[in-house]
Amino acid sequence: MTKPSLTLILAAPRGFCAGVDRAIKIVEMAIEKWGAPIYVRHEIVHNKFVVDSLREKGAVFVEELDECPTDRPVIFSAHGVAKAVPAEANRREMIYVDATCPLVSKVHIEAERHHANGLQMVMIGHAGHPETIGTMGQLPEGEVLLVETEADVATLEPRDPERLAFITQTTLSVDDTAGIVAALKARFPAIIGPHKEDICYATTNRQEAVKAIAPKADALLVIGAPNSSNSRRLVEVARSRGCDYAQLVGRADEIDWRALEGVRAVGLTAGASAPEVLVDEVIAAFRDRYDVTVETVETATENVEFKVPRVLREPA
Ligand code: SF4
Q: Each residue of 149-198: pLDDT tens digit?
C-alpha cells in the first residue's frame, strides 16, 4: 500500500539551549567526579527522557534539600534557587553545585542591584514555576510583586509607584510579555526595566522559528514536557499564528495520529529542554506512516555555550 505524502516542516533553532546543555553536563561530570549517587534538587531540566537517563547514571532527584543526605553532593537545577537554598546547604556543610543557567543568574543580579538602590521589584512570571520561586527568593519577602497577566497590573499595590523596577522570567511569550510591560509602563511611568525584557535568546529564537513555520503548517507538534514553560509557550505561539491544531507531545507515542488524518504539512519543533533524539524519534514515526519530505526553516543560528563551574573542571 502506498503511503500518503506529508511534508514535515522542521523549525530551527529548536531543542536544547546552552543552559540546559550545561546543566546536564554538570550532573554527568558530578557523577564522574564524585561517583553515584549525586542528588539533584528538582528536575535538572523539565524533560522526563533527560531525567530518566540521568537517573540511570546515578542521579537521585528530590524536591527539597532535607531529602538529601549531608555526605553526598547536591546539584541545583537550571531554573535557579532562592537564596535560602544554598544558605541551608552551607549550614548543613554539604557540597553543592549550582546549575542555574547564567541567563537566570543575570536576572537574579538585576533584582539585587535594583533592591540595593531602594527599588521594589515587579516580576513578570508564572506563579509556582521554579524559576519564579528562585528569582523572587533572591530578595526578602514582599520586595518582589508577581504579575502574570496584563489584568494583574491594574491591581498591583506597590509601596511607592515612583520607585519600581521590573524583571521577567526567561521563558515567557515574547508577545504576551510586551503587552504586560506596556501596561506596567502606562500605569507606572517611572518604572525601570531591562531594555526589552529578560526573555532569553533561546526562548526568543524558538518562538520566532515557530512563527515562521506555523502559517505553512496544517498542524504543529512541540516536543516538550507539560511542566516546561518554554515548550508550552511554543504551542501558544503556533496557535496565535493561525495553526489551530498545535499540541505538546512528550514522545512519538503520544502523537494522536487520528487527529492528523488528512493533513499534508506538519510543523515540528522542540522546547529548550527536549533532546534532538526525540525529534529523530518523531520523524521516524512519521516515516512509518507517511511518505515524508523534510523541510527545515531556519530563522536564526545559535552558537552560545556556557562553561561548567570550575569545581567540576578540577581533579577530584
Ligand atoms: S531556556 Fe534560556 S534561560 Fe532557560 S536554561 Fe535555556 S538558555 Fe537558560
A: 999 999 999 999 999 999 999 999 999 999 999 999 999 999 999 987 89
Q: At 218, which CATH number?
A: 3.40.1010.20
Does the CB atom of residue 44 touch ligand 1 within 6 A? Answer: no
Tell me which residue of 215, 180, 212, 224 sits closest to 199, measured CA to CA. Answer: 180
pLDDT for 255 equals: 98
Statement: the pTM of the whole predicted model exceeds 0.90:
yes
Look-up of cell digits 512519521: 286
pLDDT tens digits for range 196-237: 789 999 999 999 999 999 999 999 999 999 999 999 999 999
Give me the CATH number covering residue 47.
3.40.50.11270
- How many structural domains compose the chain? 3
- Quick check: is 27 in a domain? yes
Domain with 251 in it: 5-16+201-298
Question: Which of 37, 71, 101 is at the close of a domain?
Answer: 101
Pocket of ligand 1 contains residue 104 by CB under 6 Å: yes
What residues are labeled active site?
Answer: 131
The pLDDT tens digits of the residues spanning 118-136 come to 999 999 999 999 999 999 9
Burial class (CB in 10 A: 0-12, 13-18, 19+), 161: middle
Quick check: 295 pLDDT over 80? yes
Residues 6 or more apart in contact with residue 171 via CB below 8 angstroms: 131, 199, 200, 203, 229, 230, 233, 272
Q: Select from 100, 104, 206 the residue to mutate for testing ligand 1; criterion: most ligand atoms less than 8 Å from CB.
A: 104
The answer to whether residues 231 and 279 touch, using CB atoms and an 8 Å cutoff, is: no
Contact 72, 93 (CB under 8 A): no
Same domain, 142 and 208: no
pLDDT of res. 197: 84
Residue 9, strand partner residues: 267, 295
Inside any domain, residue 310: no
